[in-house]
């Protein structure tokens, strides 16, 4: 059910350096609830899993964080071409508010943040179960010759160990200042951790 007008969460887009310790703790607590299989990442004030975001889109209901997305400008390599993207990760809605439309509102605010960062594309990796959600918000699957592209990245554990992963599904982009026709051909290689 949609939020009542007087109960709608308040969204803000914050630079990472503007977050207080209380902010990090509130974000970490919500992310641990939203991603219970990865709750060991979000302990105390550690409010990120991979690379620390540059911007945070945060929705609050009172003092409680109820939705979050992290964004960081970074270069990825696609077919040997360096490409600036707005890497998006840790997109989450508090479990008790999932299905209320808050996630769609969150992605609209992510779009505004990506535009403000001046990147040609947003980029994220999504599991099969949530790809339809992103596609309904305008995110497009990355394909080449009708097949999903392969993305290569280093997956880190909570203790810092890294393993190279190659994955041929779940890569989505959001057109920001460029169109999908301008996306280079070839495999995707992350140059650093994912957000």
UniProtKB/TrEMBL annotation:
Pfam families referenced in this protein's UniProt entry, alphabetically: NodA (PF02474)
EC number in record: 2.3.1.-
UniProt xrefs under InterPro entries: Acyl_CoA_acyltransferase (IPR016181), GNAT_dom (IPR000182), NodA (IPR003484)
UniProt entry keywords in alphabetical sequence: Acyltransferase, Transferase
Domain of life: Bacteria
Chain ranges of the N-acetyltransferase domain: 9-159
Segments passing through the bilayer: none
Signal peptide: none
Record keyword Acyltransferase present: yes
Gene Ontology, cellular component aspect: cytosol
Entry's Gene Ontology molecular function annotations: acyltransferase activity, transferring groups other than amino-acyl groups
Protein known as: Nodulation protein A
